[in-house]
């Protein structure tokens, strides 16, 4: 009897444990279903996010390609502009050098012309000095001649006076005779 009671007790204990295990399994199945549902929702959300990100990446890649093309074009344009700038600078340097040569030539011609003109003026000045000296000499000689003529005139006047006086005296003497 005891063995039967003990067995009954064991069967009841085992049945209670089985019920407890079934309840726990049922809870686990519910939790698993909830987790599966949550997992599927999370998976779908992540899939949507990945799709959006993938589209953004594709869009960004397109924009990146456009930017790289634009950057390449800008670099080409910059290189062309730089090349043009260098060519213009070189042309400007050449023009400046040419103008400097022309300026030097013009200065040389100007100096030569200035020297020739100065020589010509110096020769003219010398000619005028010589003419002036000649004129001064002529003037001096004319002055001397005038002085001589004045002196001769004075002598003639004196002589004339003396002659006139003599004539008057002769007339007086003739009148008395």
Order of helices and strands: H
N- and C-termini, Cα separation: 242 Å
Helix/strand/pairing class, anyone? Answer: mainly alpha
What does the radius of gyration come to? Answer: 71 Å
Main sheet summary: none
Q: Helix amount, in percent?
A: over 70%
Strand content: under 5%
Which outline best applies?
Answer: rod-shaped
Q: What would the average pLDDT be, to the nearest integer?
A: 93
Tally of DSSP β-strands: 0
Task: List the topology elements.
Blueprint: H1 2-176
Account of the 3D structure:
- The protein has 177 residues and is mainly alpha-helical.
- The chain is 99% helix and 0% strand.
- It contains 1 helix and no strands.
- It has one helix at residues 2-176.
- 0% of the residues are buried.
Task: Write a concise keyword list for the protein shown above.
177 residues, 99% helix
Offer a quick outline of the entry.
This protein has 177 residues and is mainly alpha-helical. Helix content is 99%, strand content 0%.
